Amino acid sequence: MSGTTSAGWEALGSHRKLGGQRIFTIDAPALGPEEHEPLLILHGFPTSSIDYAAVLDPLRADRRVLLLDGLGYGLSAKPDMHYTVALQADLAAAFVAALGITRLALLTHDFGDTVGGELLARRADGDWPVDITRRVITNGSIYIEQAHLTAGQQLLLSLPDEKLPSASPITEASLTQSLRDTYSPATPLPAEGAPGDPLMATVEQIMRDDGHLILPRLIRYIEERRQNQARFTGAIESDPSPLHIVWGMDDPIAVPSMVDTLVAARPDATVVRLDRVGHYPMVEAPGRFVVATLVGLRG
Asked: How many domains does the chain have?
């Protein structure tokens, strides 16, 4: 496990105007000969594309890799507004369109699984003319009835869809602890704040521009998932592109039974179950995550 600074991550990308909003994006070229289609990565809640800092270079060894921070997340703009899955999917689609890409592989995690599901549903409807060659899905509550939501998630969902006051009890310390609690107990972590602690930059980006105050707005996607699971998860299950599952088996939220349910619905899917890894496999075990992911991306 290794960390990077928020400034270092920001230096890799650029801010684009997409859908009228300022969105942080990274268009990382292949480090060697480009042998595969580009890879679009969609991050989870409440974090951002910096989750992939430790795995970006091996993922782009032979392919172009595209990342973006959703609106309200990371280094993107954080307006006080109602957020929807459709809006985040619009921005991802706009990013791909701006680059002129019509064929790509897809890697999604957590909330990104839901955004990816919406994109796949649009593809089935004929509303997103992009050829998806391969997909990798990793820890996310794709079957919301099986999810074990944390106390923090339940608290945020119990609040109104409004920005919190500046005196919010959400702090860097509480966010750091909440994220650490989603890791496997077996994950070796540096001391909090020590060099190499990946959560320092992650939490800094959540807090940037008072992003922690809009968490009750961003988490509404869980309500949408409950209402529209047939659309989001149905598309994940039914899209004809090859599906590969990479799952941290110590995830306390997106529990391992979800893998079994997805495989039952999609028996042709391939699976790598990562023991002693929690909700953030790309952070907790980057080396193992890359090996497992490339199985699905290279066939």
From this structure: 1
